[in-house]
Amino acid sequence: MDEEYVDSPRYYLKEPCETYTSSGPAKYVLEVNAGFAEKNGLKAGDSVF
Fold it and tell me: What pTM value is reported for the model?
């Protein structure tokens, strides 16, 4: 299997993006723009829907 990485707005990336891991068990990932969590007061344990 080959993996190709595409950035918005669909530019091919030669190198894959950096990988991040969770500090605890997690089932899902919420991807938001940089600064969004701090600006909106999101913190561990908050309910999102």
Answer: 0.49
